[in-house]
Structure to design on (310 residues):
């Protein structure tokens, strides 16, 4: 499964995953961890963190043998919290259709890099460029298809806040190093983008509060300025939430006076229909009911669906 995901994206991790699948020593190390922690992504990121470089199978075996306790402790303490700023490019057309100014709440915000819509510049191809407020923040390149309502700019953002079970802090070097270890070898464009986004976030860090999207969202929503359009959004989050709890979350969001935007793998947003999709594709949804677009899980393309242009 992981090897399939890594195919075409990271030959190094594709081959490492294949080697691990036949390696008794690494497999028995993994088997001793709680089942939720037996993730290749988590193992490889933790090994990279300790080794200072992406592991190959020999380095991983040595690490397991010599520093298995340290590796296990790191895997127990950390989790996969990839924060991909490029997802802003796939969410922006949906945001820009709303009446501004906006108040943004991102649930599952990780380090808050996907809250900084207005900092980034955007390149949607065919000379459709949008300049961000921070010239040193990354330019997010996103190929578009379908009748996408490309925005002229980023709507004014009056207020923003993130909520996360385990927020990462962009001002802490260990958290930033962890974030960079979650990027797979071979994805140098993502590494560069992450570094530039972190540098921008460090100049003026976004607020990300510790809390659970199942219980702490209404209190945070109550802090948003009432004169702004409140948008509650999330990307790559609900897959980490148990199916029954996704339904609870959906009911909570529907009970708030807010626009709900989701950017998640097909099938994880309760009530959001998705009849056709490709592996690795997300569905951009509005209100938990209307699919707007198919999007690349890492934000590099989006395909707007017919009839959703208005
Ligand atoms: C893969 S990251 C996605 C980060 C960001 N949304 C993005 O698109 O780059 C998923 C995040 O969801 C958070 N998360 C998972 N379950 C949560 C919950 N019940 N409440 C709040 N945050 C949660 C995790 O801690 C993690 O930081």
């Amino acid at each position: 499964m992981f090897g399939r995901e890594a195919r075409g994206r990271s030959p190094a991790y594709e081959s490492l995953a294949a080697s691990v699948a036949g390696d008794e020593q690494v497999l028995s190390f993994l088997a001793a961890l709680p089942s939720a922690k037996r993730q290749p992504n988590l193992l490889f990121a933790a090994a990279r963190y300790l080794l200072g470089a992406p592991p190959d199978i020999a380095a991983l075996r040595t690490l397991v043998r010599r520093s298995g306790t340290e590796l296990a402790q790191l895997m127990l303490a950390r989790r996969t919290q990839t924060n991909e700023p490029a997802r802003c490019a796939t969410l922006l057309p949906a945001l820009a259709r709303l009446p501004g100014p906006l108040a943004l709440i991102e649930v599952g915000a990780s380090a808050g890099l996907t809250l900084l819509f207005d900092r980034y510049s955007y390149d949607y191809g065919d000379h459709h460029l949008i300049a961000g407020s921070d010239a040193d923040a990354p330019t997010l390149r996103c190929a578009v298809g379908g009748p996408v309502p490309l925005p002229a700019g980023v709507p004014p953002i009056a207020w923003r806040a993130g909520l996360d079970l385990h927020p990462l802090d962009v001002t802490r070097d260990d958290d930033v190093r962890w974030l960079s270890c979650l990027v797979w070898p071979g994805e140098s464009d993502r590494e560069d983008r992450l570094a530039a986004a972190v540098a921008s976030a460090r100049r003026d860090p976004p607020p990300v509060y510790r809390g659970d999207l199942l219980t702490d969202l209404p209190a945070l929503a109550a802090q948003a300025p009432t004169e702004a359009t409140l948008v509650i959004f999330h990307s790559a989050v609900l897959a980490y939430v148990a199916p029954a709890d996704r339904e609870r979350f959906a009911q909570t969001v529907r009970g708030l006076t807010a626009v709900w935007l989701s950017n998640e793998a097909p099938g994880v947003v309760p009530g959001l229909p998705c009849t056709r999709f490709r592996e690795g594709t997300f569905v951009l949804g509005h209100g938990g009911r209307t699919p707007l677009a198919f999007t690349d899980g890492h934000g590099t393309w989006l395909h707007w669906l017919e009839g959703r242009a208005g």
DSSP finds ten helices and twelve strands in the chain. Residues 81-84, 87, 107-110, 114, 163-166, 212-214, 235-237, 240-241 surround S-adenosylmethionine (CB under 6 Å). The first strand starts at residue 102 and ends at 107.
